[in-house]
Structures are given as C-alpha cells and as structure tokens.
Design a protein that fits this description.
With 418 residues, the chain is α+β, with helices and mostly antiparallel strands. The chain has 15 helices and eight strands. InterPro entries: Diguanylate_Cyclase (IPR050469), GGDEF_dom (IPR000160), Nucleotide_cyclase (IPR029787), Rev_trsase/Diguanyl_cyclase (IPR043128).
C-alpha cells in the first residue's frame, strides 16, 4: 500500500508543488486517514455531483425511446421503453436525494448511481441478444454497448481515492465481462478483448483524474481551513469542525469539551515590542500546544489572541487533566523571556446541558472572562449538579494546585495535580 501511495504521490504532487505534505500520500490510496472536515466537504461534493449526474441521465435516458421506436422491432422497443422509464424514474429519485452529508451517504448515492445503468445495461443486453438485428437496427442496438464506457468515464468528476475508484469500477467491469461471455463461445473473443481492454484503459484514466481532483481538493481545503499566521485551524473551519463534533456527540451520547484560551496581557506585547513580536508569541503558543495535543484534539484560532481547543470524547475531569499537561509544560515565552500565561474557560456539552455548539462556546467564553477577572493564569471550570455539587474551579498550574471554591453552604476542597 505504501509503495503504491508513494508512487502516486510522486506523480501527482507535481500538480501542486508545495501545497501537500509528503505524509499525506496515504490519503490518495485510502480515505481512512482523511480528517473529518475533509471527509465532510468531500461527501458534500460527491453527493452534489451524483445528483447532477443523475439529472443528466434522468433527462437523456427517456429521449432515446423515439430512436428505439423508429428503428427496432415492434416486439423489442416496448420492453426497452419500459426499462428506460424505470431507469429514468430511479435517476429522478436520486436527484431528490437530500440526505445529510457524510461519507456513508455519499457511498450509498454513488453506488446507486452506478448500479442503475449497470442493471439497465445487463437487462438490455439480454433482451437484444434474443434478436438477430440487421442494418440500422443493428447499428442502433450496438449503441447500448457503449453505456459501460460512458459510465466509467464518469468517474472522472468525483474526488476519489484509489481504493474507492477500484471499489466502484469493479462491479461495472465484472458486469461487462459477464455480459460478453457469448463472444468467447461464438469465437468473436478478439474483438471483445479489445473492447474490454479499452474499458480498462478508460477506467485507469478516470481513476487518475479522480485522484487528481482529490489532490486539488486536499490542497484547497488545506489552504482554506488553516490560519495563515499560526498554522492551526481558522475560526471558520473551527466552527464547521465544532458543528460536526457536536452533532456526533449528541448522536453517540459521548461528552464534548471546549477550552477557550485567551493570552494574558497580550496587548502589552504589541505595544512594547511591536506586532512582529506578538506574532512570534502566537506561533510559539500554537507550537507548544500542538506538540502535546492528543489524537483527535483540535486547536482553532478564534480571533486575535483567543484560541478554542476542541476536545472530543472528553468530560470535565479529563479536559482539566489535558489542560494541566499543557500548562505544566508551558505556553511559550514572552519577548522579555518570561513564560507566557493564559486565562482559560472550559465547558462540556452534557454537564452544561447545551443544545447547540454556539451555547457551548458561549459558556466557555464566559468562564474564560471569569478566569481573567480572577487574576489571570487560571482555568475556570464549572461542573453541574449532574456530575457533582456545583462549583467553580480556578486552577493555578504554576503552583500545580487546583483549588476549588464552592458556595458558602458547600465545603472547600483541594486537589493536587501531578
């Protein structure tokens, strides 16, 4: 797999030099390494192009009925007409396919799109072989044999990996091969072999075009989702990722935590040392956090010196542990050599009973301001009564101590963080 993907990388990376990373070469072979945002956007594109393809087939398929009536025997064209009307109805249903974007739904849409003409080709081929057509009728009937060629050429409009292209093309190639078995019996196999080889060649060209589209999409998505200064996710892409993660969290009943991080006294850096020094501090922060993120955690630059850390499948206590690890290792340095500090507010979907991702961000943002008003360099976390007695946790990780301030009627507690 690695050799194949590396070969494709070497051949295709020249299309957009410097736009893709070498470790993304496996993305060309299999979709399993694609990040959720990439998968979501690719699913949207595939579904939209499936509907476009289906619309063209829904319109063009019944138009050929007139040609069949004028050229084919009276006992044949009614059967083909019924078959065409059924296929057109199926394509029309696919045009109305408006399921939520996701790779599973995209695969279903593509499988349906290519199954309809494949079944149409097999049935029409069986009907046509019952007749000994001559002249114009034979020429018109020969046109049905070109359907698999058109179908496989259509792969070129979809951004697919090598594995996906093979998975969708194989049934069409098998169907065409089975439909041509009588050529081997009748002795006309040389002509059929040439046709089959041409079909495989078209499949190869379409696959290359699909992978090229995937390379282009990877480059464009990579440019669009990243903050140009720090290299972490931009706010727009962060909102899209958060919407997907929130939906998945609700669907699976798993926790989803956020940490809203705001650098302390950042304006002083810009005022004293200039904006270039401020940019270096931001880059240093992102580098420090990114080096310690768990797989699946997502850092987004929300605006200016504000960052949003998305922690999927993470409850309140786990988010504090993750943040403790970040704080203890440091958030970079200021231009004067002192360590950079930040005020952070956290929120969790289940404990905070949030109905949408906007509410979740608002909760984390509000607690960040509470942390800032409490003296900065703190993390403010609120655990609801569903998890434990309501409390506001302010953690000073410079001292590696988490102090818990509760309401007057509740007792105070301290938890040492290793």
């Amino acid at each position: 797999m690695y050799k194949i993907s590396h070969f494709l990388w070497l051949r295709l990376s020249g299309l957009l030099p410097g736009e893709l990373m070498p470790d993304q070469s496996s993305w060309l072979f299999s979709p399993h390494q694609h990040m959720p945002l990439m998968a979501h956007r690719r699913a949207c594109m595939i579904i939209n192009r499936v509907r476009l393809f289906a619309f063209l087939f829904a319109v063009l398929t019944p138009l050929w009925i007139v040609v069949d009536i004028l050229t084919l025997p009276d006992t044949l064209w009614p059967q083909l007409m019924a078959l065409r009307l059924l296929a057109s109805a199926a394509f029309t249903g696919l045009v109305c396919y408006k399921r939520q974007a996701g790779m599973l739904n995209a695969y279903r849409a593509m499988a349906t799109l290519f199954a309809i003409p494949t079944v149409f080709y097999v049935i029409s081929h069986l009907l046509l072989t019952r007749y000994s057509l001559q002249g114009l009728s034979a020429a018109i009937s020969a046109g049905y044999a070109f359907l698999p060629f058109v179908l496989l050429a259509g792969f070129a409009i979809f951004p697919l990996t090598l594995l996906e292209s093979a998975a969708f093309a194989t049934p069409v190639l098998v169907a065409y091969g089975l439909a041509g078995l009588e050529h081997w019996v009748s002795g006309s196999w040389p002509a059929f072999s040439a046709e089959y080889w041409l079909l495989i060649l078209i499949t190869g060209v379409s696959t290359l075009a699909s992978i090229s589209q995937l390379v282009l999409m990877m480059a464009l998505v990579g440019q669009a989702i990243r903050d140009p200064l720090t290299g972490c996710y931009s706010r727009r892409s962060g909102e899209e990722i958060l919407a997907l993660q929130f939906e998945q969290s609700v669907r699976t009943g798993t926790p989803l935590s956020l940490a809203f991080i705001d650098l302390d006294h950042f304006k002083q850096i810009n005022d004293r040392y200039g904006h270039e020094a401020g940019d270096q501090v931001l880059k240093s922060l992102v580098k420090a956090i990114s080096a310690r993120l768990r797989r699946g955690d997502i850092l987004t630059r929300w605006g200016g010196e504000e960052f949003l850390l998305i922690l999927p499948n993470t409850d309140c206590q786990q988010s504090l542990q993750a943040l403790a690890r970040l704080y203890q290792q440091g958030l970079g340095t200021r231009p004067d050599g002192n360590p950079q500090t930040a005020s952070t507010g956290t929120a969790e979907r289940i404990n905070d009973d949030c109905n949408n991702w906007q509410d979740l961000v608002a909760r984390a943002d509000s607690r960040m301001y509470q942390a800032k008003s409490s003296g900065r360099d703190t993390i403010n976390c609120h655990a609801s009564a569903h998890a434990r007695p309501a409390c506001a946790i302010c953690c000073n990780y410079n001292q590696s101590i988490c102090s818990t301030e509760k309401a007057p009627e509740q007792r105070a507690e301290s938890v040492a963080l290793g």
